[in-house]
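Input:
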Amino acid sequence: MPNISEIGRNMPASPIRKLVPYAEAALAKGTTVYHLNIGQPDIQTPEVVLEKMAHLNLKVIAYSHSAGFASYREGLAKYYAGFGISVTADDMMITTGGSEALLIGMNTCFNPGDEIIVPEPFYANYNGFATACGLKVVPVTARIDNGFALPPIEAFEKRITDRTRGILICNPGNPTGYLYSKAEMETLRDMVKANDLFLFADEVYREFCYDGATHHSAMLLKGIENHVVLVDSVSKRYSMCGARVGALISRNKAVMATALKFGQARLSPPTFGQIAGEAALATPDRYFTEVQAEYVKRRNILVEGLNRIEGVICPKPSGAFYAMAQLPVDSAEKFCQWLLESFSWENQTVMLAPAAGFYASQGPGNQQVRIAYVLHQDALKKAIRCLEEALKAYPGSLQANAVARARS
Amino acid sequence: MPNISEIGRNMPASPIRKLVPYAEAALAKGTTVYHLNIGQPDIQTPEVVLEKMAHLNLKVIAYSHSAGFASYREGLAKYYAGFGISVTADDMMITTGGSEALLIGMNTCFNPGDEIIVPEPFYANYNGFATACGLKVVPVTARIDNGFALPPIEAFEKRITDRTRGILICNPGNPTGYLYSKAEMETLRDMVKANDLFLFADEVYREFCYDGATHHSAMLLKGIENHVVLVDSVSKRYSMCGARVGALISRNKAVMATALKFGQARLSPPTFGQIAGEAALATPDRYFTEVQAEYVKRRNILVEGLNRIEGVICPKPSGAFYAMAQLPVDSAEKFCQWLLESFSWENQTVMLAPAAGFYASQGPGNQQVRIAYVLHQDALKKAIRCLEEALKAYPGSLQANAVARARS
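Output:
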């Protein structure tokens, strides 16, 4: 029997999906499980999209251009212009989700053995795409005590070697919810320019910026136009993760010409998803206003609720719909499994994502979890209450142990 | 400005799309261009699919399981059972077209530097996926004079080295239309077993077998259950190329577990496409009977028409909807460009795919073209007539030159 590949062996398993069998077992016992572990929003897809998809009149579901519908790319150019970003339809390739944009972008820009610097914690699947392309992810650790701000420039510079070819950021961040300031983006620009690196910017949460904060796109940075590769997606923006439609965008002509060769090999991005994506361009502004208002309420419930629990630290994110929390536990991995396997409070429990999978370094994420606030406000309140009780009951709780030790 | 990757530089450009600017120029001049160059069928998608898609009632277009809808995979297992192929839902991963099945399959089974043997001419994008995975495609040349039958076993054996890890076939073949016999499949089985290789079988044209011929799937071969990786797609079967839904199928548990890790990194296959694919499982048999009857008529018109032209050789294919033809020209590439750039007959011309892009070897494809018979019968007849006139007028026509020489 032939063996599988080395890359295949090295591919990381999804850090989130490992707990799924335990969640299934809890459900089978009749326990309500609050899913705070995944980024699948419960928000409705915009009406304009649902309407369009309910009235399709296709006779043949045909391939599109490998770069995607020209009309859709032109529509996207206008969408970006609304953010002050000047790009043309030729600077874009429609991809099968942000995932394919990352994979094709990495294959286009980096050689096996190259290194890319990524502030951690980062979106766990960056590891998967880097492994598939033979790249080495070099982490620079951001700290929970300053809300996961961009690590100081010296921390990046220490990690630049002769194999370093790029920096990859997610802004606003998954899993941190951190929104980079203009000054932080300019720090990145200077570093990218000085070291002739690619800057990959995953901006799929662009619309999710709160408290009046402004999003500073990497595409707005002057002087590194040929260095920036933008990864985008309709998944979160319009709550249509299943459409599998994203975009790879760069003003670097060689990057786009090369990416198109990868695009041609796989023929075209999904036709239905593109129709949905193009329809979504007409989403009224009030959709985002409403969605943002809802997420702000949820975020506030979550962050305030968590920080009220003794020993829990949860910085307030300015964007996306995730928060990272430090829990007073021996191991977040064990705690998350225990929540599903051995705990329930009023027949309810919580599913969280242990943060270790979002770090390349061993250690800093061991007591952290990522929480996606994708549940409605009441469910979120119950989930927090549940978590509070769990932290009291968990045998490996540092808080409970400390209290027990103080009492004994 | 940072450079693009080596793999990116090595990625082949689509051999078909190179001619697109010439076709656009011909259209701009008002010339009718018969597109015999692409595999986009004009056949209507089954009514059951169009009906389903016209009555969607989704509120949130959500991710699916990374391996695809369980219900769809169970439905597919029944579909395969109809061909005597026994597989379970766990032996399958739904992919974004056959393209992603190939890419993930190759990444799962092969290491960069590995060699895979592929009978040529082959589907040009195999080159693209192999390049993206760092694999070397080692061709074994099939011959037009026996209709592109499987080359003799000795031809394969001569090419097996210590880096050979697999054989990749397309059955029925794109671009040849050749359908492997049971004996040929057994030859492949023995070779695969003796050398402990993976056998990748691209069977996306399974439904397109003519004249009562039977399809012998690689999944039916005994004794190499852990070696076979099946690549499948709904694109051609149901004339829904744009759905971008395919499948990677293997009974090898390590292959499927590893493939799923690649699948998890990209989250899920397209949701709309899966809904369409699942609906398509209910396509009535008469759809295929009608489609096959139509393609047989087209094939006969094409093959008979071409073979009537002096100097043209076109074997009669038993499957798929392509034919390879040898033309009496100095260079098929030049001829195809000339057809679009400099020729028209009654204001019409023909777009063909030069076959060189379907060969890894230099030489054997230089006078060949691939013709997709995806036009209705009248258009096909006009296209053949056009081609006949073109071969008389083409300055590099060997036939015309021979006649001219004989006359002088």
